[in-house]
Design brief:
alpha+beta, Beta-lactamase, 7-stranded antiparallel β-sheet, 11 helices, 29% helix
Length: 371
């Protein structure tokens, strides 16, 4: 059995066993963290940081978590709202006047955060490199007409979520989303999570490993439509090789290019599960956390092709809220039990080809420790 290192309180031994089993079966390297009442009760890791299994996964190993980054971006918006600098019910154009073009004067901040703004793709951008030009991407979004009446339907904003929220944050604070997160979230919490990764951390990065039998040309694709036929990917198709590139690490793509490990993901998100504090540090008020689990939309998601419940910034699943990333990383928070569970991996699984229940097994093991 794979050697698992780190902290694990005895009542959460099933979490350690679940990670060991996953590393023996599917994973190459991974980390898992469980925070309860804002403090760690599980902080474990194991396996390898490379596909050749020659470099051990260490305590401070980082990897790209793809759309798990959206949880971090949403938190930044909630912090600004809690400080009175952002009104979630205000028009986006109140902060970003150019955004009112093409009939978007009625798009509210909460529409953007709940994937109901009607701007789910970047069809005008055809190369991944286009995503690195912040001003060009946000100008295109400001000029576009929504695909549906905002607030009436939902469609997962896979890439646009981060640019939209990030530009609102930039207009209010004068800082990029990555800078705001680093200074207002990561620094006070001591969280080793980065949106836009500085070069000094490159030697700690475990590259993403494409799913078994696939190469690093494997690309994030649109999910099947209601008729079962895969949707055409609009805009730039992001491949594993892109997500592993230096240019990707340096860019600001706040929906998808965060780098961290389970510990850093969990401590940041535990702030919301624990009514605004983690490790004795308060980032927002108890009331400021509540939009994270308050339902904004429930129904069929036009892009995901499945029933979804969206809150202000997160997916809601029963009593939990959070979101996961392409390939398998995820975070889930339960405000009732004040628990947050995070799982970060380098071995991707293609869910079109095989079931990926790795993260769910970790979450269920954590709930077993609660009871």
């Amino acid at each position: 059995m794979t050697d698992i290192k780190g902290l694990c309180e005895p009542r959460f031994a099933a979490v350690r066993s679940a990670l060991a089993a996953s590393l023996d079966k599917h994973d190459v390297g991974a980390s898992v963290a469980v925070y309860l009442d804002g403090d760690p009760v599980v902080d474990i890791w194991g396996g390898y940081a490379d596909a050749d299994r020659s470099i051990s996964w260490e305590r401070d190993t980082l990897t790209g978590v793809n759309s798990t980054t959206k949880n971090m971006t949403a938190l930044c918006a909630l912090i600004l709202a809690d400080r009175g600098r952002l009104d979630l019910s205000a028009p986006v154009a109140a902060y970003w006047p150019e955004f009112a073009a093409a009939g978007k004067e009625g798009v509210l901040v909460r529409h953007v955060l709940s994937h109901t703004a009607g701007l789910p793709d970047l069809s005008g951008l055809t190369a991944v490199e286009d995503l690195y030009d912040w001003e060009n991407v946000t100008a295109e979004l400001a000029a576009r007409a929504p695909d549906w009446e905002p607030g009436t339907a939902a469609g997962y904003h896979a890439l646009t979520f981060g640019f939209l929220i990030g530009e609102i944050v930039r207009r209010i604070t004068g800082r990029s989303l990555g800078e705001f997160f680093a200074e207002e979230v990561a620094k006070p919490l001591g969280a080793d999570f980065h949106i836009g990764l500085p070069a000094e951390h490159d030697d700690r990065v475990a590259p993403l490993i494409p799913p078994p039998s696939l190469t690093d040309e494997y690309a994030a694709s649109g999910p099947p439509g209601p008729d079962g036929v895969p949707r055409e990917v609009t805009g730039a198709a992001i491949r594993v090789k892109d997500a592993n590139s230096v240019a990707w690490r340096r860019a600001q793509i706040p929906a998808v290019n965060g780098f961290g490990n389970a510990r850093s993901v969990a401590v940041v998100q535990s702030v919301l599960a624990n009514r605004g504090t983690a490790g004795g540090v308060r980032l927002l008020s108890p009331q400021g956390c509540e939009p994270a689990w308050q339902e904004v939309f429930r129904g069929e998601d036009r892009i995901l092709g499945t029933p979804m419940c969206w809150t202000v910034g997160f997916g809601k699943f029963g009593n939990t809220f959070g979101w996961g990333g392409w390939g398998g990383s995820l975070v889930a928070s339960d405000p009732g039990s004040r628990m947050t569970v995070a799982y970060v991996i380098n071995q991707m699984i293609d869910r079109d080809q095989q079931e990926d229940d790795r993260g769910m097994e970790i979450i269920m093991a954590a709930y077993g420790g609660l009871h």
